[in-house]
Design a protein that fits this description.
- With 117 residues, the chain is an alpha+beta fold.
- The chain has helices at residues 14-62, 69-79; strands at 83-90, 93-102, 105-113.
- It has a three-stranded antiparallel beta sheet.
- Strand 1 (83-90) and strand 2 form a beta hairpin.
- Helix 1 packs antiparallel against helix 2 (69-79).
- The chain is rod-shaped and about 90 Å long.
- The protein starts with 13 loop residues before the first helix and ends with a strand.
Length: 117
């Protein structure tokens, strides 16, 4: 039979309280980190979409592909899961801005491409 400690208190159940506290802390940390990691992943996707669209639009501006540079940029950006936020053609140099909304934030990236000088 167990003897009661002096003062009438016991440590029985303290491990459960500690485990619940640790689980709650882990869930809270995950809730803070997950949105940031989603935004970082979206940033990489949007940057890749802008780069690819700028290159495709520059190829169109140079004459490698038929069509209009900004229309081609829009096709490439949308194929990469973003939307075209801006397109500027200055001679043979094309600047493309792509954007995407993630968890209430708008992530955008800009890329410029053209012939070598």
């Amino acid at each position: 039979m167990r003897d009661k400690p002096i003062g009438g208190t016991s440590d029985a159940g303290s491990g459960s309280v500690l485990a619940i506290g640790l689980v709650a802390g882990m869930v809270s940390l995950l809730g803070l980190v997950l949105p940031f990691s989603l935004a970082i992943a979206a940033r990489h996707t949007v940057t890749a979409a802008a780069d690819a669209a700028a290159l495709a639009a520059a190829d169109t501006a140079i004459g490698i592909h038929a069509g209009f540079p900004c229309e081609r940029a829009a096709q490439v950006v949308e194929a990469n899961g973003a939307s075209l936020a801006g397109c500027t053609v200055d001679g043979l140099v094309v600047t493309v801005e792509a954007a995407r909304a993630v968890i209430g934030l708008t992530v955008s990236a800009r890329a410029t491409a053209g012939p070598a000088r």
